[in-house]
Amino acid sequence: MIDQDGWLHTGDLAEMDEDGYVKITGRLKDMIIRGGENVYPKEIEDVLYTHPDILDAQVVGIPDETYGEEAAAFIRLKQGRAVTIETLTSYCQSQMARYKIPKYFFITDEYPMTASGKIQKFRLKKQALDLIKE
């Protein structure tokens, strides 16, 4: 939607560097607010991508009684690889601020997708909540 000043509001979050380049950092609707801190799933995903055993990662926010929301990470591993939750947590502790570290990690083979190939994060949220209740 274009506002009265001619700005197009896409719902994307971005930051501009000192050279004037704009980098997309995520989507407003995906932002996690944990204990008053803004947590961008893409930031966490980018760190998880650097882990040598991880093929892909998707992070979603889920409700939390203490902090409002917590991050839950769904991880696809490279073929033949294995990790523990402790290993993933330790890796994240060495790479990001404590409040950004996912509280939950789930190993999966695939993500729920639309017919056009987009990941359905709302279904990942539901899946995370269902897994936590078990």
Automatic annotation (TrEMBL):
InterPro entries in alphabetical order: AMP-bd_C (IPR025110), AMP-bd_C_sf (IPR045851), ANL_N_sf (IPR042099)
GO molecular function (one): ATP binding
Biological process, per Gene Ontology: fatty acid metabolic process
Keyword annotations: ATP-binding, Ligase, Nucleotide-binding
Residue ranges occupied by any AMP-binding enzyme C-terminal domain in the UniProt entry: 43-118
Database matches in SUPFAM superfamilies: Acetyl-CoA synthetase-like
RNA-binding is among the record's keywords: no
UniProt cross-references to Pfam families, sorted A to Z: AMP-binding_C
Family indicated by similarity: Belongs to the ATP-dependent AMP-binding enzyme family.
Magnesium among keywords: no
Listed name of the protein: AMP-binding enzyme C-terminal domain-containing protein
